[in-house]
Amino acid sequence: MTAPFGGAGRTAPGLPNLPTPPTGWPVGSYATYAEAQRAVDHLADSDFPVRDVTIVGVDLMLVERVIGRLTWGRVLASGGASGAWFGLFFGLLLVVFGTTTLPPFVAVLIGLLGGMVFGIVLAAVGYGASRGRRDFTSASQMVAGRYDVLCQPRNAEKAREMLAKLAMSGDGPRPAHGS
């Protein structure tokens, strides 16, 4: 299985290296990526030549979901935590490669504390520089209004028939409205 925007499929022979518009005839249109993926999976399970199939996200939009309010306490705690992981890693490297004469526990502890201080300082400087212009945390993702399944003309009618039977069986994804 590959990710929708990368993975093994990107380096497959025969695929263009530069961005190119998709080709093929529409054989299905779905409201979610999971439904389009399920439709293509059905084709694959039925020994359909899925190399002729493309899933295309249409009406792309960037969705930013606000997770929470950002405060000095959260910024410093987050900076300290991420710095602690980096410091722990650095301290363990010192111990493993024997570049210190300190006892192993002390070397790891110094790395951990140093990393925390460094992380807190970097986080404070970054947050202070924003001057309150972005006092929230969020997660962004690219989504589409609908997902069209295209197929090369040589097999498009067969794909359309298979997907129509799947939708009528009640087991498959429902086509998107308005397409």
UniProtKB/TrEMBL annotation:
Region annotation Disordered: where it falls in the sequence: 1-21
Signal peptide: none
InterPro entries, per the entry: GSP17M-like_dom
UniProtKB keywords: Membrane, Transmembrane, Transmembrane helix
Domain General stress protein 17M-like: 27-100
Pfam families cross-referenced by the UniProt entry: YflT
Residues spanning the membrane: 75-99, 105-127
This protein's name: General stress protein 17M-like domain-containing protein
Organism: Pseudonocardia sulfidoxydans NBRC 16205
